[in-house]
Amino acid sequence: METHEFSLDGEEVGFSEGQTVMDAALAAGRWIPHLCHHPDFAPHGSCRLCVVKVNGHFAPACTTCAQAESVVESNTAELNDKRRTLLQLLFVEGNHFCPSCEKSGNCTLQATAYELGMLSPHFDHFFPDRPVDASHPDILLDFNRCILCELCVRASRDVDGKNVFAIAGRGIRSHLVVNAESGRLADTDIALADRAMNVCPVGVILPKRRGFAVPIGRRIYDIKAISVQRRERD
Amino acid sequence: MRADLQAIIERYGRNQHALVQILREAQDLEGWLPPAMLTDVAKALGLPRAQVEGVAGFYSFFYTNPAGRFRILWSDNITDRMLGAPALMDQMCRSLWVEPGKTSEDGLVSVDTTSCTGMCDQGPAILVNGWAVTRMTSARVEQIVALVRDRVPLERWPGEFFLVADHIRREGLLLGDQPEHGSALRSALDRGGQATIDEVKRAGLRGRGGAGFPTALKWQSCRDAPGDERYVVCNADEGEPGTFKDRVLLSAYADLVFEGMTVAGHAIGARRGLLYLRGEYRYLLAHLQSVLDRRRTHGFLGPSVHGVEEFDFDIEIHLGAGAYVCGEESALIESLEGKRGTPRIRPPFPVTNGYLGRPTVVNNVETLAAAALVALRGGEWYAGIGTRKSTGTKVLSVSGDCERPGIYEYPFGVTVREVLDECGAQHAQAVQISGPSGVCLEPGEFGRRIAFEDVPTAGAFMVFDRGRDLFEVARNFAHFFAHESCGFCTPCRVGTSALARMMDKIADGHGSPYELNEIFKLNRVLQSSSHCGLGHTACNPLFDTLNKFRPAYERRLRSLDFEPAFDLDASLARARQMTGRDDPGAHLEPVG
User: Fold this and answer.
1) Domains of chain B
2) Which CATH class is domain A100-230?
3) DSSP state letters, B78-114
4) Residues 101-130 of chain A whose Cβ lies under 8 A from any Cβ of chain B
C-alpha cells in the first residue's frame, strides 16, 4: 500500500490511505491524549481530548482522516490548556475520589490528568447522585466514575454481541444503563470473560474481590506515565 | 403484550426505524412509558431493551416515570417569560397543589417547563399532553385548573384554547399570492431534473436554516452520489427559541412546501420524502396529513406523479418528541431512524450517507417552499430579488417587545432598523437575531442588514426593550443550551451545565470578575472542541451580552474577589423548614 506523510508537532508521521490522524500517530509511537478512543473499536469522538489542529483548524484526531502534507499540532500549550479544562469538566461532572478508588493507578482519566498537569478540579463539583449496582455476584458497577466514553457499549455490542450497556437520558443527565427491565446488572447476560469487562478506562466496571491484587504504587501508571505506556503498547 | 400496543407496532410493520413514532403512540396509552412496555416494544422490534430505554430517555416528551394524566408544560423561552409565564405557572402550581416538575400524589397532573414551543407571538404558551395552548392569562389558568380537577378529557376542553394564529404581517413572494397547486411541479417535470438543479443554481438559493449552504450544490451532490435509493427530508424541527415561521409556512402554505419537496425529489431522483415535524407542532399533523391526501388525489403525489411514468414520489410525516438538537441534520436523520438524536461524525455528509446510509437531501421548510417558486418562475427572476450574495426573501419571526409580533417576509438586505420600525418597536435596546445560537445586536448595529454576508439568520428576531435585563435574557439562553445538549461530547455536556451554574451564581449575587473570565474561557473550549454546532454556539449569547451589555453583569457582582458558590447559610434552609425555626439562632449570618 502506498504510504504518505503528515507532520505532527514538526515531525513526519507516515500513514496509509484511510487511516485517521490518531491511528497513524499511535502506530508511529506518538501519543495524542484520548479517553474514548481504543484501537480495537470504531472511532467515537466524544471525549474531545484528542482535538488537534489540522492546518490551523480544530479537529478530533480520532475521527479525522490523515491527509498528506497536512500540518498537525497536538502538543501545544493552547491545546493542552483546553484538554486540562475538559479533564476538569469530567472530574467535576462525576464523583471521582481517587484515593479511595480501586482503579487508582490503572485509571486512564487519572493518568491523563497527571500527564497534562491538572492540579485541581477548578470548577465547582456537581456531586451527582449515582447509586452503585452491586447486584451481580461477580461484577460491580460504580456509575459515579462514568465518563460516557461508550467503550463498554461498543465492546458489548460489537465484540460480545450482547448489548449489555447503553446510554440513556440526555445532556448532563446522560447515564449508562444495562439491558434489563429491572435495571440491575444481575439480570443481564454479562460474563467475566466479556470484552466489555476490561475496556472501561475508569473504575465503573469492576470484577469483585480483586480490587487490590496489585498494590497501589505498583500499578500501570504508577510505574510509567501514560504517554510512555501507550507509546510502548502500540 | 397488550393488544393496543401490539396494534401500534404492527401498524408500523415492526419497523425498528419507527421506534420514536411507536414510543410516541405507545405513550398515549397510559400517559407514560412503563418499564414493561419498553420491554415489549424491544422484543417486538428485535432491539436490545437497553437501546429502547436509551431512546425513550433521550426525548423530553417521553416519560419513563409516571407523569400524570394531564402533563402540562410551560414554554420557557425568554419571550414567554417576558409575557408573564413564571407568575402564571406559579399560580397554576399553587391552585393545583403541585410542585413544578413533580407529579401530584393522586397521579392526576404534573406541571413543568419546556423549551420554546414556537408560540412567541401569542404567548405565554403551554403544551397539555403535547397539544399547544396559547395566550395564557390568569383567568385561563383557573379555567384549566378547574378542567384538570374535574378530569375533563382534553377533547372536551374549549376549542378556543387551542387556536393558533398565523399573524402574517408582511407578505413577499413566498407568503403572497400562491401559485396554482401542482404548477411548480409541472414546470420542474417539463424542465427535467438536472435542468431544475441548474435553475436553482441560477437562483442562488441558499439554505434558510441559517447556515446558507447553496441548495443547488446540495441537490447536485445528492443526485451524483452513488446509490439506488435517495431521500428528501424536510427539516421542520424548528426548535431555535424565537423561531416560528415554519409553523406558519406549514399551517398556511403546506402545499408550497410539499410541492418543493416533490420538486427536490424529482431533481435528485428520490422516491420518498420525509417531513420531520417537531413534537411541539403535533397539532398540525392532521392538517398536514389531509393536505398530503388531497395532493395524492390530485396526482401530485403517489405513483406516476403528474402522469410522469418514471416518477413515483410520496411523503410521510415523522413527529419529533422534544429535542432541539434534532434540528442538526445528522441528528435529525438519527431520529428519523428511530435512534437517539446524537449528531453523527461528519464527513461523511447526508448527501452521500444520510437516511439509512443513503444519499439524502435535508432542507429547511422555507428553502423547499422557495425552491418550488424557483421551479415555477425561474432562477433569473429569483436572483433579481434580495442582494447579490443573498437572493430572494427571508421570513422573519418577530417577537418580544413590539406592537405587532408575527411573521414578516422581506427581501434579503433589509436593515434591522426597518424591521423594528415596521413591527412597532420604538425603544429597543437589543435584538437577538437567529435565536440564542445567533447574535445579539445593540442599537449601534441596527443599521446592519439581514443577509448571509452581514447578519445571517434562521428567522428569529426577538426584541428587548430598554427596561429588559439582558443578563436574564442570557441566563435563560444558558439554561436552554444546558437542557438541550445531547450529552455526547464532554465540552457541551458538562460545559453548558457549568455555564448555567455560573450564571445562576452571578444571579444569586455571588459572582465575581472571576466568573466573567471563566465564561470567556469556556466559550473558547466549546467553540474549538464541541462535536456539533449546538456546542459551538452555546456560549454565543453570553459572549455577546458580556461584550455589549457588561454593566448588566457587573452590577450583580458581589465583589472584585473570589466568591464561593456554596452558601452555607442557605444550605441550612431545609433544616430550618423541617424544624419550623427561623429565629436568629437558626442562621449563620444575621437575617436581613
Assistant:
1) 3-56 (no CATH), 70-165 (3.40.30.10), 169-383 (3.40.50.11540), 393-467 (3.10.20.600), 471-554 (1.20.1440.230)
2) alpha beta
3) HHHHHTTHHHHHHHHHHHHT--TTSB-TTSSEEEEEE
4) 123-124, 126
Shortest Cα distance, chain A CAs vs residue B37, angstroms = 10
For chain B, say whether A164 makes contact (Cβ under 8 Å).
yes
Which of A123, A166, A173 is the closest to B498 by Cβ? A123
8 Å CB contact between B239 and B203: no
Sign, CA torsion B350/B354/B360/B364: negative
The 3-state secondary structure of B306-375 reads HHCCCCCEEEEEEECCCCHHHHCHHHHHHHHCCCCCCCCCCCCCCCCCCHHHCCEEEEEHHHHHHHHHHH
B142 phi and psi, to 5 degrees?
Answer: -65, -35
List chain A domain ranges.
3-75, 100-230
Q: Quote the minimal CA–CA distance from B158 to chain A in Å.
A: 35
Amino acid at B150: D
Contact B276, B355 (CB under 8 A): no
Chain B contact present for A174, CB below 8 A: yes
Strand partners, B302: B313
Phi, psi of B90 (to 5 degrees): -60, -45
Match 384538570 to its residue by C-alpha cell: B148
How many Cβ atoms from other residues are within 10 Å of residue B190's Cβ? 12
What residue type is A58 in one-letter code? F
Q: What is the ipTM of this complex?
A: 0.97
| Class of residue B521 by CB neighbours under 10 A (exposed 0-12, middle 13-18, buried 19+) | middle
For A77-95, the DSSP string reads: HHHHHHHHHHHHHHHHHTT
Inter-residue contact B240 to B279 (CB < 8 Å): no
pLDDT digits (tens, 9 = 90+) for A141-191: 999 999 999 999 999 999 999 999 999 999 999 999 999 999 999 999 999
CA distances to A19, A125, B11, B247, B485 from B498, rounded to whole Å, are 35, 9, 44, 33, 12
The dihedral built from the CA positions of residue B456, B461, B467 and B469, taken in this order, carries a sign that is negative
Contact B455/B396 with Cβ under 8 angstroms?
no
Q: Do A85 and B57 touch (CB under 8 A)?
A: no
Q: Is the dihedral of CA B123, B239, B52, A205 positive or negative?
A: negative
pLDDT per 10-residue tile (average), chain B, 592 residues = 96 97 96 97 98 98 95 98 98 97 95 98 97 98 98 97 97 96 97 98 96 96 97 97 98 98 98 98 98 98 94 97 97 98 96 98 98 98 97 98 98 98 97 97 98 96 97 97 98 98 93 91 96 95 95 84 73 90 82 49
* Chain B positions in Cβ-Cβ contact with residue A48 (cut-off 8 Å): 489-491, 529-531
The DSSP-derived string for B544-568 is: HHHHH-HHHHHTT---SS---S--T
CATH class (in words) of the domain with range A3-75: alpha beta
